[in-house]
Amino acid sequence: MNQTNSFVLPSSSAELDLTIRRATEADAGALRELALLDSRRPLTGPLLVAEVAGRPWAALALDSGEVVADPFRRTADLVELLHERARHLRDGPEAPAPSGPLSRLAGALRPRRHGLSSG
């Protein structure tokens, strides 16, 4: 399943359109370029990608936890979100919520349950 979670992060000068999603075959070239930019080997296995305005800024290998990120952009928070999303995928939607400044954004990465309320 290719689940996409999109939301907007405020920045100092503008808003960023951020998407955290699983990588697909179509991402291979862009992720290879991202790894080269970060002076790292390309990631292997299932990956999560953090895209801003449709361009990958960071990626995380789900099996190893290795990360590549654009060294010319502020990506530390994106990498933290990738790790949090990976934890949700691994531990399930009932995993305890994180604490700290990204807790609200990390909550946005949890899958939503849609259903009828009883009340």
From TrEMBL:
Compositional bias annotation for Basic residues: 110-119
Region (Disordered): 88-119
Protein name: N-acetyltransferase domain-containing protein
Organism: Paraconexibacter antarcticus
Species lineage: Bacteria, Bacillati, Actinomycetota, Thermoleophilia, Solirubrobacterales
